[in-house]
Amino acid sequence: MNKRLDLSNIWVRLAIIVTLCCLGYSNSLTNQFMLDDYLVLFGEMGVAHMSLTDIFTQSQGAFYRPVGHVILWICYHLFGANPVGYHAVNLLLLAGISLVFDRCVFRLTGNSKLALLTACLYAVHPIQSMLVNYITASVISSFVLTAQGSWWMFLKYLDDARPRYYGLALILLVMSLLCHEMAIVLPIVFWATLFFVKRVRLPEQIRLTFMPALIVAGFYVFRMKFFALEKSTSTLANASADWMEYLGAIAHLISWYLQKLVIPLDIIFLWTANLERGPFVIDMLICLALIAAGLILLFKIWQPGIRSFALTCFVVGLAPVAIASYTYMPFTDPIIEPHWFYFTSIGFFILAATLLIDLKNLVGKRLWIGLLAAVMIFNMVALRGNNARWTDEETYCRYWLSLNTGNLTPYFGLGRTLNQQQRYSEALQVLEQGMQSSRYHNVMILAEIGYAYLQNNQPDQALDYIRQALQMDFNYSVTHYYLGLYYERLREYDKARQAINKAILLFKHDPRYHQALERLDPGRS
Question: Which of 141, 243, 427, 458 could lock 452 by a disulfide, CB 3.0 to 4.6 Å apart?
Fold first, then answer.
C-alpha cells in the first residue's frame, strides 16, 4: 500500500536534511588540516594545549570564543590529528543547524513546506562549505547553532508564554556571544520577529528585547575591557579617515558576498579588498541601487510579514562588515569572511524559499519540481566541486591565489607547505611574491622566508629575515627555532642551544624543538 511521505514528521525532515548534507559533503571527510587549523588547534595559543579552565580564562590573541573552542577541545581529545573525525562532527553540526533553522521558520510562519525548503537550500548552498571543510570552523558552527537555538526558544516563548523558554533564549544568547562576536545582531532579529511577524505593540517589543540588548551591551563592555576589542575599534577609527575609500571597500566586499549568494561559484573563505584598486565606484552604485530597491520593497510594496522580516535580517546581517572588515588592519587590507553573515543568510534563504514557492503557482507543479531539482543539483555540484579544492593546504592556497591575491594568508600557507616538502626555491618565490603583492607583512611570513633561505644555503639572507621577524614579535617561538637552526648550520652550538631553549620556553609542545635540542645536546632535552 502506497503512503505519501509525511513531510511534517520531524524524523522525516531530519532524514532529508542529513541525506542532503551527506550527499553534499561525502568528498570532504578526508580533507587535511590547513592554515588556521594549525594555529587555533595545535599552535602556541591552540586549544589542544589548554585545559578547560584555560579556554575560559585566556584569549587566543585578539579572540575570546571559549564556548566554541570547547567543542574543538573535545574533538582534539577524541580524534587527535585525524581530520576525518573533525569533519564528521562539522557535518553533524551543519545538519543540526539546518534542522533548527527548519524549526525556527516553521515556528515563525506555520508553513511546513516553506520551513523545510528554507533549511534544504541552506544545507546545500556552497556559501556554507567552510563550516564542514575548515576543521576549526566548528567554532563558527557553534555560534550559528546557539544563535538559532536562542531564536527558536524566543519563538517558543512567543507561542507558549512559558518563562523558561525566554530564559533559555537568554542563556543561548550568552553562549552564542561566547562563540563569536557576530551574535550581537541577534537582539535585532528578535525585534524584527516581534515587529514584522508577530505584530506586537511597542511596549511589548521593548520589554522582550530589553534583556537581550542589555546582555549584548554587557558583553561589549566585557570584551572591550578584558580582551582587547578596543584595539580593533581604534584600528577602524584610524583606517576610516578617507570615507570614500572606506565606503568603497565596504561596498566591494558586500557586492562580492551577494554575488556568491546568487551564483555560488569560486567561493573562498576570505576575500580581500585591495585599497589600491579602489575606490570601487561600480560596487558603490550596485549597493546604492540594492538599498533603494530594498527600501521600496519594505515600505511601498510589501506589508509586514515574513518577507519584510527576511529582508530586514538580510540587510542588518551585513552591518558588521562595516567594523569587522577593518579589524585586521594594519596587517591586511579590508577583508570579508562569509561566515560573518549568518543573519544575512536567514533573510536570503527565507526570501529564496518564498520566491520558489511563489513560482509554483505561476509555472505549474511539474515545471516547478524540475526547476527546484535544477537549483538543488546545481548547488550540490558546485558544493562538491568546492569541497575538492579543500583537499590540502597547497591545493587550497593555489586556488585562493588564482582568485584573490590581496591577502598574505594563502602565500604563507603555500610557502609553509613548500618548505615542509623541501621545495625551498619554490617556497621563496611564493613567499617573496606575497611580500611584493601586499603593503603588509607579518612575523610568520618573515620567519618562513628566513627558513627557506637557510635551507636554500643562503644564510646571510636567512639571518636578515629572522632578525626582522624577531623585531616584529619576539615571542613567536618558531622564529627562535629557525634562529637555532641558523646557528647550528654555522656550528655555533652554544648560540643554537640558547635559541632552541628560548623556543621551548615559549612553546614546549612542538616536537621539532625538542628534537633539535636532542641533536645539539644528546640526553639533555
Answer: 427
| Cell matching residue 44 | 602556541
Rounded distance, CA 190 to CA 206, Å?
Answer: 11
CA dist., res. 51 & res. 461, Å (int): 40
> Could you read off the pLDDT of 290-335 as tens digits, one per residue?
778 777 877 777 778 899 999 899 988 888 777 777 776 666 778 8
* The predicted structure's pLDDT at residue 168: 96
User: Is the pLDDT reported for residue 226 higher than 80?
Assistant: no
b/e map of 231-254 (b: 16 or more CB within 10 Å)?
ebeebbeebbeeeebbbbbbbbbb
Residues linked to residue 208 through DSSP beta bridges, in sequence order: none
Q: Please give the Cα distance from 508 to 500 (Å, whole number).
A: 10
Q: How far apart are CA 183 and CA 195, in angstroms?
A: 20
Task: Give, in words, the CATH class of 394-520.
Answer: mainly alpha
Domain boundaries, the chain: 10-391, 394-520
Q: Do residues 17 and 119 lie in contact, with contact meaning Cβ atoms separated by under 8 Å?
A: yes
Per-position b or e across 156-167, b if 16+ CB within 10 A of its CB: bbbeeeeeebbe
In one-letter notation, the amino acid at residue 316 is V
Segment 280-292, tens digit of pLDDT:
778 778 778 877 8
HSE-up (13 A, CA, CB side) for residue 249 = 27
Kindly report, residue by residue over 378-395, the tens digit of the pLDDT.
999 999 999 999 999 999
pLDDT at 70: 92
Q: What is the pLDDT of residues 463-506, one digit of tens each?
A: 999 999 999 889 899 999 999 999 999 999 889 999 999 999 99
> Burial, 422: exposed, middle or buried (Cβ in 10 Å; 0-12, 13-18, 19+)?
exposed
Distance CA 273, CA 405 (A): 10
Whether this prediction's pTM lies above 0.85 is answered by yes
* Cα→Cα distances 28→14, 134, 195, 285, 475, Å: 21, 10, 41, 38, 35
Which residue, 106, 112, 230, 100, is CA-closest to 168? 100
Contact criterion met (CB below 8 Å) for 15 and 7: no
